[in-house]
């Protein structure tokens, strides 16, 4: 169809009512996905604020000062910074720290991935619909950063350290959320001791992690009503407390009380800032990443900026402000109830329903950050910075909802250790604050670079953004660091452990790639072997996996000298990541030729975005053969032949067995203009027989313009019918004898341990074990 649906294209107009319904539906769903943890922050904010020396200041002005700090921080950071500015910096509809880093990699050439190509810039999603810097001359600052690789390395390390902080947040959020909600039982059950609360919390946490393999799809619509009911409840309770205890609490919205607060409390007030930042602590949703208010930005992939803004401004902001004001009003008359201020401020008539909703909301918040951790681990792996892990799709309809078993059980063990070890939400809160504020601080720096290099705004605007918001978050970060001995060391220690794993894996992988790059097989050596490569060429297709995007890897010569025969058609397959969120399926394959036509050697580069998850596709071989056939046609003649007399041309035809007698059931390929003379016949048995799909390629009898093209396509089809084998090098990485002690430890001990205990490349690439050939080789790097 030539008619398009959408406003920008001038096609068919969309019903405005349908747009509004879609907007409201997305806003409704965002409550259970984006705002789960933010909505539960009132459970422990005031308790953490007044847990230290600030407890000695029991007067109304101090409480008003704390409320004013919470209100203005909540207004400036989430509302002004994220809703008004950061939400506009999307990467083809995706958000989060990795989206900002991806924009910088493409527009400012900050990428450190060694296998990037100029052809990657031709992807339709590479520059997106936003401003492009492709034809703009690089600025002096950009040229300076491009020349100094160490600065780009530092930028990557900062981004990865922020990612490690998010993983640490995945340990702390379930612990503090569940423990805070369960501890509310002690308000009504006075005899319930702390040990029982910890045991109940651990049981809930084990159940939460045990259910992760089911995914969030089946309960996704349950999340939103729970959070909405919770928000309306705490908003109503806050309004009740304002009216009942202190109607004049609205005066605390005057920022003058912040000045009075610091003048009176001094250092004690500054240290309390770490707890005042808890209103910013919000975790992301399934298949996304980044903590704190970062969720509003990170969840653009599942929602839209307008729906997230509508939910925040319409419900989240007013309900939480009312709750914090209500707690302040209650504390101004009942300061002794600080440790359990939230539950004490609940009217007795509605205590148990509110407690139940609070527990459910805490579980929702925990689910969000756990799923976000899965997403960020996957994205780190796409950058070559995390060992291979099993990635399971938990939803057939919502792209990006994944489950990683290894990470799930590691998180569970660490979360239980934190819960049993600390047993106090105040100490866990100190650790929680450092993790969240640091990630926000990283986003501010990246956003300043995006404003300068991607949006092409003035340096003064970028610097103003950095100074204003960086100063606010830097103040909170400095306060959180003061809590380092009191639990703040936990996320830092976890981050350094994960950072060590990421750096060692990235270093070992990069050294292996550089070894391949420096020891490529020369084309002269291949040509001297002749079309037979000096061995017997047997029927079939050999897919040789390599990380190189150009040239022939050194391991190929190892294959030739150790194997007595090789396949008739050889394809060097490189699976790589590009700095875009998603790669369209029709742009995923890049095909090229290695050597003369008679050698029957090709190269296929399979490209994935940092949010793409390769699925177990049984059609990979078929897509590969069709892509090679298209390349052969395009190489022979760039202009498509005329259509045949049947009106269809020699288009690609797909039929099931049941459709053979029905000539009208024809599916026309989108690549029909280039695959003019290749037909593919699907012979699929009944699904109940559970047999694998069999595919047969056929060359029609229509004459070809070029007999060499016909001969090459015939050889390709013959090889496909003979079978496909996957050839992969089983490599051992060792440091050279003259290497330093640190390098030997990193390669021979740490990297070797990670390779032995992570998933093999064949499993990660979904290669069928029955068709796999592995050849061992030692790399001295």
UniProtKB/TrEMBL annotation:
The record's listing under InterPro entries reads: K+_transporter, K_trans_C, K_trans_N
* Source organism superkingdom: Eukaryota
Q: What is its main location?
A: membrane
**GO CC, alphabetical:** membrane
Q: Which GO terms describe its molecular function?
A: potassium ion transmembrane transporter activity
Q: One Pfam family this chain carries?
A: K_trans_C
Question: What residue ranges are annotated as transmembrane?
Answer: 23-43, 63-84, 153-176, 196-214, 221-243, 267-289, 310-330, 350-377, 398-420, 432-454, 461-482, 488-505, 525-545
> Where does this polypeptide localize?
Membrane
The K+ potassium transporter integral membrane domain covers 26-527
> Residue ranges of the K+ potassium transporter C-terminal domain?
539-779
Query: How does this chain sit within the bilayer?
Result: Multi-pass membrane protein
Keyword terms, alphabetized: Ion transport, Membrane, Potassium, Potassium transport, Transmembrane, Transmembrane helix, Transport
Q: Which family does it belong to?
A: Belongs to the HAK/KUP transporter (TC 2.A.72.3) family.
- Function comment: Potassium transporter.
Supply the name of the protein.
Potassium transporter
